[in-house]
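__Protein archive entry__

___
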Amino acid sequence: MDILIWQKTDLGFKAIVENKFSGLLYDNEIFQPLETGMRLTAYVKQVREDGKIDLVLQKLGAKKVDDFSEVLLQYIKDHDGFTPLNDKSDAGDIYDTFGVSKKTFKKAVGDLYKKRLIVLETEGIRLA
């Protein structure tokens, strides 16, 4: 759904959802710089009893990991079959490269590893 970043608060950012509703993005769930006036796509995390909407900028659950697994696999292919990033890499480096949290990165790595598409090495990740 379409959101408009409206106001910074102590908890995160207030947003206008679909030009009709009020929503909130919590600081601890934001992995990119935000500014008032930005238009983004967001996903509903929950609708609270008071009718307010808690939002996230990443897809929830397995769909997010599946989508990112494809992105990570293509990235490795596009970079000569190797990336120096791995589960020990800094969360900031992972976000700067892929725009996802370290948790999502690690889940995608696990998914690709289980499918035997990648090999984990001390220097990084290589195509199998």
The beta strands are 2-8, 12-17, 21-26, 39-41, 43-47, 53-56, 82-83, 118-121, 124-127.
